[in-house]
Amino acid sequence: MNPKIAVVILNWNGSEDTIECLESLRQTTYFNYSIIVVDNASSDNSLEKIMRYCKGGIEVKSAFFKYSLKNKPIKTAEYTKEQSEKIKFNSAEVVLIKNDKNYGFAEGSNIGIRYGLTNLDSDYILLLNNDTVVDSDFLRELVKVSESSHKIGFASPKTYYYDFNNKRNVINFAGGSLNMFKGQSHSIGVNEVDNGQYDEIKTVEYGEGSCLLVKREVLEKIGLFDTKYFAYWEEADLCTRGNKAGYRSVYVPKAKIWHKVSASTDDPTKLYYYTRNKFWFMRKYANRTEYISFLLLFFGFYFWNLTCKYTLYGIYKRSLKHSNYFLKGIKNGIFIK
What molecular function terms (GO) are annotated for this protein (predicted)? Predict the structure, then answer.
């Protein structure tokens, strides 16, 4: 049996990455899927370029695959957010949904998820970052493991860096773990060369949102992403809710993707959301002992260390945005529900 998959890809001013991702996805060995590209109000003509690719008008160059015209043109449909909520059925291979504003990762993904569940009647939702390239067998491996047990609610692949000093075998993610006493999430295997040390299927605490296969019944039971997060920590929240509802998160090493992970710290908005959402996550899921431990460690060490770091960075850049956004994230994370 080949369950139906709805692949949700979020795009925001990243058409070049999205097109490379789409081409790699179109060359997979699993065929029972549809693609939903949700555009978060891009200003770079992303949808126009994606449509041109689907018609066979853009040749994709990549070190990971050879471009093929055999799967072109691709049957597409384009809707606004409001239109997508009214459509009852569509047989397009790629559905493009144009949002009226940037809804962030959480609600942007939810828009695609709702379309996949309601309009496509999908058995699974695959959340896939637009800046990824997938192995041809990745989806088949994720589905095979997910179908092996009704208790598996989430499945995530082995994720490599797209380019790590010209290497493609350096791991970025091999499952996620949480330390509730420290308030820290950890990507297992991060920055390690893959020598087979993470080649066993295993239960983990969460799967990364860059590529996460979720069963329909899980989403129907626990709901979609918590939209108040906007971006960062939302996948840990989703998996934690699922785990508490009795579903497992599983790491699948035979499923492989490559991710263009950004190491940039120049966007203070990311710092704000990450900091604020860390506190929201801890307030929501940590028990009393864990939360007190987290606060003592954070304000006894990390607060001073990071405040000094961002202040010095701000002096160098002649802007204190980073330190201000960091402090704002802490304040809103503690005092806003």
Answer: glycosyltransferase activity
